[in-house]
Amino acid sequence: MRRIPRLSGVDLILWAIRIVVVVFVALGTYLTLSAGLLTGENWRDLLIFGIAQGAVYALIALGYTLVYGVLFMINFAHGDVFMFGAMTAFFTADALAEPDPATGIDFLNQNPLIGMALVLLTAMISSMIVAVLLERVAYRPLRRAPRLVPLITAIGASLFIANSVRGLYGERVLGYPSLDVLQGTIDIVGIPILKTQAVVIVGAGLMMALLYWLVERTRIGRAMRAVSENKDTAALMGVDVDRTIVTTFAVGGVLAGAAGVLYAVVFSQVHWFMGFLPGIKAFTAAVLGGIGNIIGAMLGGVSLGILESVGPNLLLLGFGVPSPNQLRDVVAFSVLVLVLIFRPYGLLGRPEGQ
Question: Which residues, in sequence order, are CB contacts of 121 under 8 Å at separation 6+?
């Protein structure tokens, strides 16, 4: 007869935490739904906002997961790469939104597609330049160093970028000009969705699809995957490792810049410290999906956005907690802690060595 293994004290504690979490989630959900505190329209709006927010997290998370895939390091400066693109693109958007003295009409609203393309291009190029400089100046000299050294360097680089932007662009919150064409809602299969949220979801989805095609179907993607498997073997097979790593940082920077503009479309404002929380949450999304896994980063970002939007209301309203939306950051970081405890390799990741 097979003997049942005895559980250690740590295992018993982990099982107790699991049970408490499951009971809390089930009880909070039951109390909220049974009380009918929010209507179906309210839940729908929260869900759509969560998907839009999660799409931005996913684009940032892809930068984390791409860099980890080729260098096995966490680029904690990536949130500030996202911030730099959004802040720099503001000045392009602000210039295009300046009304013409003769007609009183601004270029951005007169030519919204061209105007937004210019703003997006500015953000992507500026973020890409910062990401490539980070790799060349901060990380390449430390490529053979112990993992802790690049991690500390990444934190220092993050502080350097944030405070440089603070000195160059100022501390004030900058309000992005709005587009008249994006005001109001649009009906999609009978569901009214804010036009800004629809643009963010569609734009982020297209970029994620392009990235997947790049990695899976192109020569650059094959080089990335080869370097991810083994740098030395890839070099022996003729892959330019340095160029591939720079390309990886550049692609991550482009996605971060695009995410910065999409973030500004939803929230209409940017500031020098805006990269911190979205950056940490995008890292949480990458861990949730499985760090190093592109599909996992996409899934993790959207999942975290939905959890952050729907979770506080679903779990806390039933307990009578006032203003549960103010605790959305608690939900996000609680997810990070629980994932690190129970499944540190994420939803789609694999344990090291497998």
Answer: none
Closest to 56 (Cα-Cα) out of 205, 162, 167: 205
Residue linked to tokens 């806390």: 316
The amino acid occupying position 63 is: G
- Cα gap 267→175, rounded to integer Å: 9
pTM listed for this prediction: 0.92
Is residue 314 within 8 A of residue 32, CB to CB? The reply is: yes
Contacts of 122 (CB under 8 A, 6+ apart): 85, 88, 89, 92
Q: What is the CATH number of domain 11-342?
A: 1.10.3470
Q: Helix, strand, coil shares of the chain as percentages rounded to 5? A: 75, 5, 20
Residue 251 in this model has a pLDDT that exceeds 90: yes
Predicted confidence band of residue 282 (pLDDT cuts 50, 70, 90): very high
Question: Going by DSSP bridges, is the β-strand pair 174-175/185-188 parallel, antiparallel, or unpaired?
Answer: unpaired
User: Do residues 263 and 194 make contact, with C-beta atoms less than 8 angstroms apart?
Assistant: no
- What is the DSSP code string of 116-184? HHHHHHHHHHHHHHHHHHIIIIIIGGGTTS-THHHHHHHHHHHHHHHHHHHHHH-SSPEEPPPPGGGSS
Q: Closest by alpha carbon to 158, among 85, 84, 89?
A: 84
d(CA 199, CA 262): 8
Delimit the domains of the chain by residue range: 11-342
CA distance 28 to 311: 10
**DSSP-assigned letter for residue 326:** G
Instruction: Give the rounded distance of the alpha carbon of 30 from its chain centre.
Output: 31
So what's the pLDDT on residue 199? Answer: 94
The SS3 of residue 189 is: coil
In this predicted model, what pLDDT tens digit does every residue of 46-82 receive, in sequence order?
999 999 999 999 999 999 999 998 888 889 999 999 9
Q: In sequence order, which ranges of 290-327 are alpha helices (DSSP H)?
A: 294-316
Contact partners, residue 276, CB within 8 Å, separation at least 6: 79, 80, 162
pLDDT at 5: 60
